[in-house]
Design brief:
Number of helices: 16
Helix content: 55-70%
Largest sheet: 2 strands, antiparallel
């Protein structure tokens, strides 16, 4: 047996991670058997697309709802049909984190830890088991980031293909939810910064800056508009080439419309601190009390903030580019909510930033904790796994023994 045959194969590891995540997400997926939280809006929107009936839920673009419609057509208008492709998106998130980590760190071990931290962060588990838009948007954003890193480092013949792939994925992300729009800008800014740093030669070989930006912008916009294709075949109020652009302003109008005060609304600065989670479900279902609390795993959420600070420190002091990249991914994803105007805020807006905490944790543990304690990453992973197991009943709609059972898991009064 050669030494090369013993080396870990990243693609096989990524596939194994995706399979493990998919099996976890699929377990008892059809419980509860009724729509949960915003599923009531998106399942109805998916039905209308599946029947090509007419516009519904025009506050958001079509693509994520079109994917859900595919689930209904495949498995029926039932919980499996509504939620199946959300599990696939969740698995793609886990594999996307591994791919990003492997490319940033150049080693399988920290990439693997980053992906497992993300898998065990409650936010990914919950969003992978509910028919909402954010899971699809996040999956496409993560795959786009991975493709952008590949484009930056690829030899000249492959650069353009990876760049086109990244642009397509960004277009699909925006077509799932407009929250992804800033990531198109982030991709362009990253390309400008890397070309400037690399003296216009080290990164994105064979593609000039202006043509590269044109590919990013043009392909992502074209892909976005293609996601509206089903609406051209509606029975009522079908889109036309003349109404496609005005329809975007209709979406914008809905986005900017005022909303009433919501009991679970929260302010942006509270999200990283895990202060105001959201109850997606807490009521008797199928004859027994069940609950789904959208909460972040405290080990990842709170430990991740320390890790982000450590990554900034390492990036500035030691010029550790991968660490700074992990910090910037979190910082850009969270920082946009500080400047982007929203009617009201909700904890699930923090979904993408919470994902990038896994990369920061893996990087910081390996660089700063393991030289002092050899098994620091393993210890952190055990704590994360233990908390996932402890909170599992309240994040998975498992049967609870009473309507006061939530008190076991709501450590803070703001979690109630």
């Amino acid at each position: 047996m050669t030494t090369d045959s013993l080396k870990p194969r990243p693609i096989l590891i990524a596939l194994a991670l995706g399979l493990a995540a998919e099996l976890l997400f699929l377990a008892n997926l059809t419980i509860p058997a009724k729509p949960v939280f915003d599923e009531v809006y998106y399942t109805e929107a998916a039905r209308t697309i599946a029947r090509l009936y007419g516009p519904y839920n025009v506050e958001h673009p079509l693509f994520a709802k079109t994917i859900m419609a595919g689930g209904i057509l495949l498995f029926g208008d039932n919980p499996l049909g509504w939620r199946f492709f959300s599990t696939v998106a969740g698995s793609a998130v886990v594999m996307g984190v591994f791919a990003i980590g492997w490319q940033l760190f150049g080693r399988v071990r920290p990439a693997l830890y980053a992906a497992i931290f993300v898998l065990l962060n409650f936010t990914v588990f919950i969003q992978a088991r509910i028919a909402m838009l954010d899971g699809f948007m996040a999956a496409f954003v993560l795959m786009a980031i991975s493709a952008m890193i590949a484009a930056a480092r690829a030899p000249a013949p492959q650069t353009r293909r990876w760049l086109i792939a990244a642009a397509v994925l960004l277009g699909l992300a925006v077509g799932s939810k407009w929250t992804a729009i800033p990531y198109v800008a982030f991709a362009g800014l990253a390309m400008i910064a890397l070309r400037w740093r690399g003296g216009d030669k080290s990164y994105f070989a064979g593609v000039g800056l202006v043509p590269g930006l044109a590919i990013l912008g043009g392909v992502s916009v074209a892909t976005y508009f293609l996601t509206f294709a089903p609406a051209f075949f509606y029975q009522y109020e079908p889109l036309t080439f003349a109404t496609l652009i005005p329809f975007q302003f209709r979406i914008l109008t809905q986005q900017l419309a005022p909303l009433p005060v919501h009991p679970y609304q929260s302010v942006w600065w509270s999200w990283p601190l895990d202060l105001r989670p959201m109850w997606y479900l807490y009521e008797p279902v199928d004859g027994i009390q069940r609950g789904i609390l959208l909460l972040g795993n405290p080990a990842v959420m709170w430990g991740g903030l320390i890790a982000v600070a450590a990554c900034v420190y390492g990036g500035l002091r030691d010029r550790a580019t991968p660490m700074m990249a992990a910090a910037l991914l979190w910082g850009g994803s969270f920082g946009m909510w500080v400047v982007v105007p929203k009617k009201i805020g909700f904890f699930y807006y923090y979904y993408l930033p919470s994902i990038f905490l896994g990369l920061a944790l893996a990087a910081a543990l390996e660089r700063y904790a393991e030289p002092r304690f050899k098994y620091a990453s393993e210890a952190a992973l055990l704590v994360t796994l233990a908390l996932f197991a402890w909170f599992f009943p309240i994040i998975s709609a498992a049967p609870l023994d009473s309507d006061q059972a939530f008190l076991r898991w709501t450590w803070l009064t703001s979690w109630r």
